[in-house]
Amino acid sequence: MTRVYIGCFGSGLGHASRMLDVAGELKARGIAVELSSSGEVATLIEHRGYRCNRLPLADVRYRETGEFSLRDTLSASHSILGHTLQQFVKELSNIRRFAPDVVVSDSALPTVLAAKSLGLPTFTVLNQLNLTGPNYTGRATTRLLSVGISSMMGKLWELSDEVLLPDLPPPYTISEKNLWGSHVGKTRYVGFLPMPGKGEPDAAAIEFSSDRRPKVFWRVSGPPRTRTSFLKKAFECARMLADEYVFVVTEGSPTAGHAASRIPGGWSYGWCDIVDVYFRSCDLVVSRAGHGTIGQAITHSKPSLLVPIPKQPEQEGNAQKAVQLGVSLMLSQDEVGPATVRRALGELRGSGCASRAQGLGVFASGYDARAEVIRTVEAAASGVLSGPH
Question: In 10 A of CB 389, how many CB atoms?
Answer without folding.
Answer: 9
